[in-house]
Amino acid sequence: MPHEIGEKICGRVEELAAISEDPAKLTRIFLTPEQRRASELVMSWMQAAAMATRLDAIGNVIGRYEGAWPGLPALVLGSHLDTVRDAGKYDGMLGVVTAIACVEALASEGMRLPFAIEVIGFADEEGVRFGTTMLGSRAVAGTFDPDCLGRRDADGFSMAEALRTFGLDPGGIAAAARRRTDILAYVELHIEQGPVLETLGLPVGFVTSISGANRVEVTITGEAGHAGTVPMAERKDALTAAAQCVLAVESRCRAEPDCVGTVGSLQVSPGAINVIPGQVRFSIDLRAAEDARRRRVTAQLLAEIAAVAADRKLRAESRVIHELAAAPCVPWLVAQVERAILAEGIAPFGLSSGAGHDGMAMMEIADIGMIFVRCARGISHHPDESVTVEDAEIGARVLLCFIKDFEPKGAL
Ligand code: GLV
Ligand code: MN
Ligand code: MN
Question: CB within 8 A of 149, min separation 6: which ones?
Fold first, then answer.
């Protein structure tokens, strides 16, 4: 069977993957020249699919395909266009290019639906540059926190400065917010980023819910000193304290069901081989399927970090910089996604998502649903991330079937 749509989707994923700050690996960060190039490419595809395009105030790319008449409320589809560092090609991008391919299929059939379709390529989901995530979808949901504008990247640029350099007005972000009445639902197709579908031999599945997440920034301050002269008992080594905290994250999260914790970034200062570390900053990413568990484990960890520091006569400052509640996919949409999967001859299987997605922000203004596409060996946030052309094709067919049969909640 030919896989024309799958080939097109995967070809476009490759084109986007070539837009990177580092030619040797894929890294595309919020408000960079690479984001601009990717946005322009995506807008050209949207225009070829008969969509009107625009960039909103935070840099999201938005394409709109009108329904039977202009101005109808929209079924919103999409995903994100930013990446982690040394990323895979499919995380985010697959959802954007598949949604565009579906609209292109509708346009080529001359089909207008009793609702509009909007495809959004969110500018920031990963939160790599400023630490706090889903800036694009939060702006659309009207939950963007203006205090974020003061956050600085690793080079000392504030978000406000980065927006201005990109040609956007930080004061205008509130205008990116959409009204609940304009949106019928938000549905995102994404790679699974885990091994479940592959193990079951299924190309796609429906998502039941997305785990909630916290990000914490911790700074431990001790005292730098000479590595050769300060006796072991008199040291105020910030790194050994941080090491104890990192292990505490691991052991607490191991002891809890459906809870994961990661220390993925750690800076040691002054960072010299013969100097006792005087200060360490590290991040904690903590997720759990249940919000109460996530909050409790986060609080316990913060207390444990404070106790480790006090024990060693050091200072610890911990700041929760990001919190998103678990996001359930709503039953009326899940049922329609299931129906679309079944219509493609596939047994519908539901799974929850440990990874975060823009739906977590979008749920503030719309009911959300998700379709997962199988990825090889569950590998993601890694250059080996991969999806087959066949699965990309099946994902597109399921999404197209979902769109064509979509019934807004009020119509049920
Ligand atoms: C985004 O991919 C996240 O789950 O961190
Ligand atoms: Mn990701
Ligand atoms: Mn993603």
Answer: 158, 159, 160, 163, 170
Distance from residue 180's CA to the centre of ligand 1 (Å)? 25
Ligand 1 within 6 A of 63 CB? no
**Structure confidence by residue, pLDDT tens digits, 97-145:** 999 999 999 999 999 999 999 999 999 999 999 988 999 999 999 999 9
- Does the predicted TM-score (pTM) go above 0.90? no
For residues 118 and 111, give the distance between their C-alpha atoms in angstroms, rounded to a whole number.
15
Q: Which residues of the chain have pLDDT under 70?
A: 1, 411-412
Q: How far apart are CA 238 and CA 219, in angstroms?
A: 9
Please report the domains of the chain, with CATH numbers, ordered by start residue.
5-210+326-411 (3.40.630.10), 212-324 (3.30.70.360)
Cβ(192) to ligand 1 under 6 A? Answer: no
Cα–Cα distance for residue pair 294/354, rounded to 1 Å: 13
The alpha carbon dihedral of 130, 149, 77, 110 has a sign of negative
